[in-house]
Amino acid sequence: MTFAVEANCDGLVGPTHSYVGLSPGNLASTRNAGEVSNPRAAALEGLAKMRRLSDLGLPQFVLAPHERPAIRFLKSIGFSGADETVLEDAWKAAPALAAAACSSSSMWAANAATVTPSADAADGRVHFSPANLLTNLHRSLEGEQTTRALRRLFPDARRFAVHDPLPAQPHFADEGAANHVRLCAEHGGPGVNLFVWGRQAWEDWDGAFPARQTREAFEAIQRRHGAARGVFPRQAKAAIAGGAFHNDVVCVGTRQCLFFHERAFEDRVAMERAVRTAAADLFEPVFVEVSEAELPIADLVASYLFNSQLLAVPGEDRLVLLAPAETRDNPRAYAVAEGLAASNGPIGRVDYVDVRQSMRNGGGPACLRLRVVLTDEELEAVNPAQRFSPDLHKTLADWVERRYRDSLAPGDLADPLLLTESREALDELTRILSLGGDFYPFQRTA
């Protein structure tokens, strides 16, 4: 078996981080719409979380924010003139579209792509399919730039295959790794891939909130990646109705352990049977289920217990759960979390991290990262300037302190000065991370 580790690629929060409430079904996003955000604090919180993982000995990488406001999008829908004029006119004539063009949602890198490690891929390369995210307008703007970002981070075509997003059609609605879990005995060995879907392409969906992932999208990704041992459980309709817009709100897994809520899957028994069958002769899966009685769905969504990072930390015999501070603050969720650590199960320790700025938009620790299993040789082929280190932490924290506002109301997004500030900040960032002078659209049209 080839040795490999699970690296985390975190999305860096962008200068336009705001609470506009763009995501139906994301209860936190809706609840906090209109509030004042703090982009500086949000970015520093994200960097502090990256530092936590790097200090644990886990490879950590930084994904740059997307250019926002997305002036090219606004021009494509009929606004014209100087970029500052385009922004002002869009906010006056079509504020909902202007708000979508300003979203900093690329920070949630769990939606960036679905990843198949080389141990599971037919051609022995690491495969990425950037998500088309077409269910919500503001997120559907991300696919092209995400593809560019992944190709800069993973440039060696001999080792990495970064595909284009799936066709931008409702039949192939795809939300990336937020609905994908990989289980295995060791990261470098063969695994079982859980592709969790909310609806089928031709299904007459009648839920109160959208089911964002189709089964057909994941089937297409499995085919193009040549991904072995795929299992396709359905996310429970009750979970979606309760505010679990992605499977990673109700489920997280790594190595042999799948940690999930009673209402995560439409048919839990069938899911477990399919996973055991796919894992036969490879490893024995460990299922850790939390019941509705222990943690009602309302507390689950408020605490984001399952939107934690489940980590195999070097030197520790059992897994570490890195949960949001909201889990610690919710009595029921905290009791479940601490009960895990006190048991003899696979999770030996629960740590807590403050990402409150992200949480207020419905994104916990797991939302902020894309997991990529890499061998030593693959690690060496990743863009070294994007690998997190204490020195990079210091450089990026200084950059954030200088470049980001500490207060941003939704109305401030119409400020043309914010467009200039954001572009100047991102232009400097491309030099820090060695992304090239053509990384962002404004750099290619200047």
UniProtKB/TrEMBL annotation:
It comes from the Bacteria. Pathway: Amino-acid degradation; L-arginine degradation via AST pathway; L-glutamate and succinate from L-arginine: step 2/5. One of its GO terms (biological process) is L-arginine catabolic process to succinate. Gene3D superfamilies: Succinylarginine dihydrolase. It is an enzyme of class 3 (hydrolase). It catalyses: N(2)-succinyl-L-arginine + 2 H2O + 2 H(+) = N(2)-succinyl-L-ornithine + 2 NH4(+) + CO2. Its EC number is 3.5.3.23. GO terms for molecular function: N-succinylarginine dihydrolase activity. The active site is at residues 175, 246, 367. Keywords: Arginine metabolism, Hydrolase. Substrate binds at residues 20-29, 111, 138-139, 212, 248, 361. PANTHER family: N-SUCCINYLARGININE DIHYDROLASE. Belongs to the succinylarginine dihydrolase family. Catalyzes the hydrolysis of N(2)-succinylarginine into N(2)-succinylornithine, ammonia and CO(2). Homodimer. This is N-succinylarginine dihydrolase.
